[in-house]
Amino acid sequence: MKYNKNKLAMIILISVMAVSACTQSYSQSPIATPTLIPPGLFVSPFPSVENPMALVGEFMKGTATAAALTSAAGGGTTGTPGTPQAIATTPVVTGTPSTPTNAKVVATTPVVVTTGPSLTPLPAGARPTTYTLQKDEFPYCIARRFNVDPEGLLQLNGLTSPEVYYQGLQLKIPQSGSWPDPSTRALRNHPETYTVTGNADTSVYGVACKYGNVDPAAIAQNNGISISAALTIGQQLKIP
Fold it and tell me: Could you read off the pLDDT of 125-170 as tens digits, one per residue?
C-alpha cells in the first residue's frame, strides 16, 4: 500500500513538471547559429552597388544600344533585321568661299571665219586678195570669175594645171593681169534658166562655174536661196 502511494506521488510530480514545461517561456530569443557556405559556391554576377535597380537600368540601356548597332550593320531598322535602311548624308559646309578681290571679267568676242564670198556680189572688176575654194570649184573657174590670167594664178600659188584641187584650198589672187581672151571668159550665155543635172552643180558655186564669169552670190540672191544651199537634180535656177 505504501508502495502505491509513492508511485502515485511520482506520477503527480512528473505531470506537474510537464505542465510547467509547456507554459514556461524563454526570457530571450535563442541565438541563431549561422550556417557556413563554402566560398565561390554562389557568386553574384553583378558587383555590389548601393542601388541595384540603377545597375539593372544601365544594363537594359546597353542591351538596347547593342541591338540598334547590330540592326544598322545588317541594313535594317531596330527590331526589324534585314530591312534596308537609307542613310542620308548631308555635306558639311565649314565656311563661305571667298571672292577674289582682283577678279576680272574677260569678254570674249566670237570669231567669224569666212570661207567663201559674201552674199553680196562683188563690184564689177573687184578682186579679193585671197579666195578659198568651195564645193565644185577649181582655179580656172576662179580665174574666169575675177578676170585673172589663169597661168599667173597657178604660178602665184605654186600649182600646175593637172593637179587635183580640193575644197578649202586657199588661193592668192593676182592683182594684175586679166583673162587672155575676153570673148572666151564666159562659158555660157546668160541670163537664162539653169536645170541642175548632178554633174558638179549641186552647189551654187558649181553652177556659177558653169557660166565662168558669174558671181555665185548673185545667183543665190536672184533665186532667194542661201549661197551655201544644197541643190537637187532637176532644180531650176535663174542665172542673172
Answer: 789 999 999 999 999 999 999 999 999 999 999 999 878 889 999 9
CB atoms within 10 A of CB 152: 15
d(C-alpha 161, C-alpha 154), whole Å: 7
Q: Beta strands 192-195 and 170-172: pairing type?
A: unpaired
Q: Which three cell numbers stand for residue 237?
A: 535656177
CA gap 129, 122 in Å, rounded:
13
Q: What are phi and psi of 239, to 5 degrees?
A: -95, 125
- Contacts of residue 142, defined as CB under 8 A and 6 or more positions apart, other chains included, come to 131, 133, 148, 153, 171, 173
Backbone phi, psi, residue 75, to 5°:
80, 20
* Chain segment 76-123, per-residue pLDDT in tens: 444 444 444 444 444 544 444 444 444 443 444 333 333 445 567 778
pTM for the model: 0.51
* Per-residue H/E/C for the chain: CHHHHHHHHHHHHHHHHHHHHHHCCCCCCCCCCCCCCCCCCCCCCCCCCCCHHHHHHHHHHHHHHHHHHHHHHCCCECCECCCCCCCCCCCCCCCCCCCCCCCCCCCCCCCCCCCCCCCCCCCCCCCCCEEECCCCCCHHHHHHHCCCCHHHHHHHCCCCCCCCCCCCCEEECCCCCCCCCHHHCCCCCCCEEEECCCCCCCEHHHHHHHHCCCCHHHHHHHHCCCCCCECCCCCEEEEC
How many residues comprise the chain? 240
